[in-house]
TrEMBL record:
InterPro entries: Beta-barrel_SelB, EF-Tu_GTPase, P-loop_NTPase, SelB_WHD4, T_Tr_GTP-bd_dom, Transl_B-barrel_sf, Transl_elong_SelB, WH-like_DNA-bd_sf
Organism: Amycolatopsis bullii
UniProt gene name: selB
Keywords: Cytoplasm, Elongation factor, GTP-binding, Nucleotide-binding, Protein biosynthesis
Cellular compartment(s): Cytoplasm
Domain of life of the organism encoding this protein: Bacteria
Pfam families xrefs: Beta-barrel_SelB, GTP_EFTU, WHD_3rd_SelB
Molecular function via GO: translation elongation factor activity
Protein name: Selenocysteine-specific translation elongation factor
Limits of the Tr-type G domain: 1-169
Length: 574
């Protein structure tokens, strides 16, 4: 399927043209048909050559430009309509400015009402105006909506237009901008939109705002479908979604694949940043939201919207001045995760940064480490050194490797090494999984939760103190040394933690340490008791104290080695 939007001044025959081409009525509302004036978006379709072609018919009156923009925003191609007897008109210019701002690159000029006036003059002027925009040079066809003259040539020209349209990516992430929402009796809420990329299937889970929604059923061109691939006009029946929870400007997304933001940096087209000081409305897809513009450079700006939008680098939209009824500027999205502009001169520095050609590298340089999936969600190609699921800035990585080596060398010599989490925090790494690749090549290793020299053990003083503890625990395995005794031996929290990581001790509770095999030995002794047994019976059997026995039994319960029976007794489970 191919999707084409109409555009042009009011009463130049857009809806009549669609009616003639498809045999369908695009004006959906009784008020539109009574007044003979398109107010909202209309939809119709037909078969042209080997392609199904769906038309999104837009209103031409200046009062309904926001509705026109909702139709043009997701459009891959346009039929630009100019009447031969009136020629180029104000809404012709505004519609063309909108298409240019949205970056529409493929289209066809249709000069209507050719039975009322010679179409040559209107066609020549319109083609000159269109050629100066993103559409460039376009072919033109003259037709008469009244007599039907020229419709065969128009159908052929539409066939040529659709044949030149690029093939969509059926595996792309879904972003369906919703242009209509309604309720169907017995089915519930249905939304429609132009699917520009990707595929939607019945049963899929998609994201609507912050809520996950399920696709109950699909239609395309009025027929039920199990799945619909881009490009297509699609109707999506959403399971469990109230009609009041969705409307035009909302969007259905592939979960976890889009960055939604209310603040992003752009390059402006058609106006300088300093010129955008009035109250403006941003249009992107079918969304229309108030926007604040902060200049960064002559043609770059920070846009802040009233509502977060799912964006990627390279997206194109526009800002409109509704008070003056004009397109104020188009924009290209450059960064959907921009830095704060809190320090003096930060805006100007950011403007200079945005002139660099490789924005992915600029982003990575600022962040240091970026999940590869984040690049995709932002519309950027992954760059930098790949570390598993992460990408690293090479310069930052070199600096951190030197810093990591310095931290490990300077760490307290009484410990076997630096705990992984401690090193992560010292280096400011965003995830513990990055510690291993950062340490790689420094001469140190990660083992037992520590970063240390290969084969390194505990300091001699710590080994000597642990020998004393081990001798006492050999005689009385379930009598934990008191805190004062441990301190006297020089075993503080760090030394004990190192011993635990190396499998030399077990921490049963805060300040309560026993041997490494304490659980196995305890269960062996408890199995010899008559079942069930009390805490007191267990304490006597293990020659221990309540300070040790209560947390030890709770540890065995948590491990499933013993089972509390609810009456103060337990039994072993083995």
């Amino acid at each position: 399927m191919r999707v084409i939007v109409t555009a042009g001044h009011v009463d130049h025959g857009k809806s009549t043209l669609v009616r003639r081409l498809t045999g369908m009525e695009p004006d959906r509302w009784a008020e539109e048909r009574r007044r003979g004036l398109t107010i909202d978006l209309g939809f119709a379709w037909t078969r042209i050559g080997e392609e199904d072609v769906a038309f999104v018919d837009v209103p031409g009156h200046e009062r309904f430009v926001p509705n026109m923009l909702a139709g043009a925003g997701p459009a891959p191609a346009v039929l630009f309509v100019v009447a031969a007897d009136e020629g180029w008109m104000p809404q012709s210019a505004e519609h063309l400015a909108a298409l240019d701002a949205f970056g529409v690159r493929r289209g066809l000029l249709v000069v209507t009402k050719a039975d009322r006036a010679d179409p040559a003059a209107a066609a020549a002027l319109a083609r000159r105006e269109i050629a100066a925009t993103s559409l460039g040079e376009v072919p033109s066809v003259a037709v008469s909506g009244t007599t039907g003259a020229g419709l065969d040539r128009l159908r052929a020209a539409i066939g040529d237009l659709t044949a030149r349209l690029p093939s969509p990516d059926p595996d792309a992430d879904v972003r369906l901008w919703i242009d209509r929402a309604f309720t169907v009796s017995g089915a519930g809420t249905v939304v429609t939109g132009t699917l520009a990329a990707g595929t939607i299937a019945a049963g899929d889970e998609l994201l609507l705002g912050s809520a996950r929604v399920k696709v109950r059923a699909l239609q395309a061109l009025g027929e039920p479908r199990d799945r619909v691939g881009a490009v297509a006009r699609v109707a999506v029946n959403l399971r469990g979604t109230a009609r009041g929870d969705v409307g035009r400007g909302d969007v259905l997304l592939t979960p976890g694949r889009w960055r939604t933001t209310a603040e992003f940096d752009v390059r402006l087209r058609g106006a300088g940043a300093a010129d955008l000081h009035r109250e403006l409305v941003l249009h992107l897809g079918t969304a229309a939201v108030p926007v604040r513009v902060r200049p960064l450079g002559t043609d770059t700006a920070r846009l802040t919207t009233a509502t977060p939008l799912p964006l990627r680098t390279g997206d194109r939209g526009l800002v409109r001045d509704p008070g003056e009824h004009r397109i104020a500027a188009g924009f290209d999205v450059l960064d959907v995760d921009p830095p704060a502009l809190s320090r003096r001169g930060a805006a100007r520095a950011r403007g200079r940064e945005l002139t660099e050609p490789d924005l992915a590298r600029v982003y990575l340089r600022r962040k240091g480490f970026v999940p590869a999936a984040d690049f995709a969600a932002m519309g950027l190609r992954p760059v930098g050194e790949r570390l598993g699921e992460w990408c690293a800035d090479e310069e930052r990585l070199t600096e951190l490797r030197a810093q990591a080596a310095s931290v490990v060398r300077a760490w307290d010599s009484t410990a076997a090494g630096v705990p992984v989490e401690a090193l992560r925090q010292r280096l400011g790494l965003p995830a513990a999984e990055l510690v291993v690749p950062v340490v790689r090549g420094t001469g140190f290793e990660v083992a037992g939760g520590l970063v240390r020299r290969p084969g390194a053990g505990l300091a001699p003083a710590v080994e000597k103190a642990l020998g004393v503890v081990a001798k006492r625990l050999a005689e009385h395995p379930f009598r934990a040394p008191e805190a004062d005794e441990l301190r006297a031996l020089g075993l503080g929290r760090r030394e004990l933690a190192a011993a635990v990581r190396l499998g030399r001790l077990t921490v049963v509770a805060d300040g309560v340490v026993l041997g490494a095999d304490v659980e196995k030995r305890a269960v062996e002794e408890l199995c010899r008791l008559p079942q069930p047994f009390t805490v007191s019976e267990a304490r006597k059997a293990l020659d221990s104290t309540r300070r040790v026995m209560i947390p030890l039994l709770e540890r065995l319960d948590a491990a499933g080695l013993t089972e509390p029976l609810g009456d103060g007794t337990r039994r072993t489970t083995g």
